[in-house]
């Protein structure tokens, strides 16, 4: 049973190209299935989250991150009576436009494209599902529902939103111009994304040796749940990994329950009668103020101690050099790309599309093939 403010697939704003309904699936289920079977989704398994693929088999990738976001999102959606299928579709697709090498690759590609429209990974995710996937005879892209596309476009610069609005009046770019919100399902995915990466970056940071349990003593959200785990299970004091897992599990649960309680209160106060009214009620899916503050402290810690760790910074700078070299090589010699890209009318955007679609390991192979200096000897 869906809440009155949830997105109902029978009332969807539809697809850009009309299609007959599927006999056994709702439109949002169909979107989810199309995303799972897409080429871009498969590539996520070899795209960096924080640590490059060759640095270890157990670190998160964009694929495993997306699955964790989907799991958290569905759990919360079920309790709030939101549409689980839509949440899952958005969660699985939200990183389809990410470049190889994580944010380092994105930043490098944006620099390369600065004079040619720039590069935004959220906009690229939309571009993937709207244009770049080529699987169907009647249209480019996956022809997803408006509600799924709306959720995929988490952020968008105003200039790009204006371009989207010109191409699709009243479409997915409009809310960035008029200050409204996406669906509650999309808002939920944004928070599930944050919950997931904060938790798994702690896990990966400790696994890598770049973070220690002692450093995490200074993070109240972590320390609170570690102390609770030790109080209930004193034997965990001598079991580092098991203590870490139990602490993260408790952190995740606390954040999930906080979102549920805070969102229920916000929705109750706003009392939207339907999904469209919820879009005009401001952000309703939220943390409580204390949990938001605790999460901010955790994010600042991770930025300072993990994302800006000298070892991570060194790796990401080398990754930026790979992307910059590839961009210049393809721009100078388009024939090095497949014909669909080499012959595109906008060469710079085609080069960005091609690089953004690469996995880490394919980018490194191309870098070596085109004469790049060795930057990752153990890759």
From TrEMBL:
InterPro entries: dGTPase, dGTPase-like, dNTPase_2, HD/PDEase_dom, HD_domain, PHydrolase_assoc_dom. Gene3D superfamilies: Hypothetical protein af1432 (1.10.3210.10). Signal peptide: none annotated. Residues 62-198 form the HD domain. CDD domains: HDc. Keywords: Hydrolase. GO terms for biological process: dGTP catabolic process. It holds the Pfam family HD_assoc. PROSITE patterns: HD. It comes from the Bacteria. Residues 1-31 are annotated as: Disordered. GO terms for molecular function: dGTPase activity. Belongs to the dGTPase family. Type 2 subfamily. HAMAP family: dGTPase_type2. NCBIfam families: dGTP_triPase (TIGR01353), PRK01286.1-1 (NF002326). This is Deoxyguanosinetriphosphate triphosphohydrolase-like protein. It comes from Aquincola agrisoli.
């Amino acid at each position: 049973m869906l809440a009155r403010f949830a997105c109902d697939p029978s009332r969807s704003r539809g697809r850009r190209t009309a299609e007959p309904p599927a006999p056994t699936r709702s439109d949002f289920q169909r979107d989810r299935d199309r995303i799972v079977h897409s080429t871009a989704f498969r590539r996520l398994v070899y795209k960096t989250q924080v640590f490059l693929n060759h640095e270890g088999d157990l670190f998160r990738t964009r694929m495993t991150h997306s699955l964790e976001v989907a799991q958290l999102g569905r759990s919360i959606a079920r309790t709030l009576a939101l549409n689980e299928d839509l949440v899952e579709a958005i969660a699985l697709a939200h990183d389809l436009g990410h470049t190889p090498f994580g944010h380092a690759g994105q930043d490098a590609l944006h620099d390369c494209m600065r004079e040619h429209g720039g590069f935004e990974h959220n906009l690229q995710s939309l571009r993937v599902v709207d244009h770049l996937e080529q699987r169907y005879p009647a249209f480019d892209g996956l022809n997803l529902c408006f509600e799924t596309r709306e959720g995929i476009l988490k952020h968008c610069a105003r200039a790009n939103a204006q371009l989207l609005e010109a191409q699709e009046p009243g479409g997915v770019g409009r809310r960035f111009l008029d200050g409204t919100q996406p669906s509650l399902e999309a808002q939920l995915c944004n928070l599930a994304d944050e919950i997931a990466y904060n938790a798994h970056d702690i896990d990966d940071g400790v696994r890598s040796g770049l973070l220690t349990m002692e450093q995490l003593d200074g993070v109240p959200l972590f320390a609170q749940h570690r102390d609770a785990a030790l109080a209930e299970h004193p034997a965990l004091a001598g079991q580092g990994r098991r203590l870490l897992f139990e602490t993260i599990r408790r952190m995740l649960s606390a954040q999930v329950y906080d979102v549920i309680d805070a969102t229920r209160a916000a929705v109750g106060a706003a009392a939207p009668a339907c999904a469209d009214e919820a879009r005009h009620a401001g952000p309703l899916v939220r943390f409580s103020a204390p949990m938001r503050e605790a999460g901010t402290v955790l994010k600042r810690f991770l930025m300072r101690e993990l994302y800006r760790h000298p070892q991570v910074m060194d790796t990401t700078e080398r990754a930026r050099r790979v992307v910059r070299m590839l961009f210049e090589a393809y721009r100078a010699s388009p024939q090095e790309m497949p014909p669909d890209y080499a012959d595109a009318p906008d060469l710079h955007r085609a080069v960005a599309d091609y690089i953004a679609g690469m996995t880490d390991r394919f980018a490194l192979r191309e870098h070596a093939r085109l004469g790049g200096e060795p930057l990752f000897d153990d890759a």
